[in-house]
Amino acid sequence: MTLSLLLDLQAARDNGNFPAILKKYTKPVLLIIDEWLLLKLTEPEARNLFELIHKRWKKSSTIFCSQFRKDEWYQQICGGASTLADAIMDRISYDSYKIDIESADPSKDISMREVYGLDPEKA
C-alpha cells in the first residue's frame, strides 16, 4: 500500500488535485499502510505523508505494518535529519498501541514464497 499511496499523493500534488486525493485517504475509518518505510522517504514523500497522517490524527485509525522496529523509523524518514521525521513520529506515537511480533523459533521461520511452494531462484 505504501508505494501506491506515495505515488497517488505525489501525482495528485503534481496535477493540482491533492486536496481531493488527500480526502480519499482521510475518509476511511481504518487505513492500513503495509510495508511502512520499506523504502526511505524523500522530503516530498514525507511532506505528503505528514499531511495525510495529520489529517487522520485523532479522527480515525491507521495501522502501520513494518519490518523495521519503531526506533528505526526515524532513519527511514529523510535519513532522520528532517523535522518532518519528528512531526510524523509525534503524530504516530501519540495515543498509539504497538505490537511487536517476535518469532519463537527463528530457525523455523519460512518465507511466503516457501509457504506457497514458489521457487526462490525465480524471484
UniProtKB/TrEMBL annotation:
| A Pfam family of this chain | IstB_IS21
At the top level, the lineage of the source is: Bacteria
| Residue ranges occupied by any IstB-like ATP-binding domain in the UniProt entry | 4-103
Output one GO MF annotation. ATP binding
Instruction: Check the record and name the Gene3D superfamilies matching this protein.
Output: P-loop containing nucleotide triphosphate hydrolases (3.40.50.300)
Where in this chain does the entry annotate a coiled-coil region? Answer: none
Name of the protein described by the UniProt record: IstB-like ATP binding protein
Please report the organism this UniProt entry assigns to the protein: [Clostridium] aminophilum
- What does UniProt list as this organism's lineage? Bacteria, Bacillati, Bacillota, Clostridia, Lachnospirales
